[in-house]
Amino acid sequence: CIGCTKCIQACPVDAILGASKRMHTVINDECTGCELCVAPCPVDCIDLLPHPQWQTAESPAEQDSYLARRASKGRARFMARNQRLAREQRQKRRERQKRRIQLRSRASRGAGATEQRQRQMAVNAAEQALKRVLQQLESAQRREDAKAEATAQAQLPDAQRMLDEARRALAQTAKE
User: pTM above the 0.85 mark?
Assistant: First the structure.
């Protein structure tokens, strides 16, 4: 046994114990002999042998009684397995829905944060633009360059207006 768990998945009555990468064991008293575990096994490590109670039965009536007990036990285990699988599937579905809801709520919170972050970046850019215009103005005044000073003076109101608008937009986002 290489511990691939394919036999565990195939067994309709959960008669095989084991875990991934561990040797598996067939529970003799629970096995129905359906042979559904044999085909998926990649290393052919499952041998089906007659059950000792079947072999010790002395009459066909005892064999029939044994088969009836095994059949009812197998049905009960099959139904229990199906209920377990359905329960696990419902739980997985609930967990998936919970994760989706959490992701949506994060996304909606993140959208507001993203918008605020973008507006903060706009304020920073407007502040830098105003700072650049002021530096150009100072530089033009030091060099006594009238043309450059006039250009900087013309750009100053636009830069200040952009900064004011960006700050108003940021304040509005903070209120929301």
Answer: no
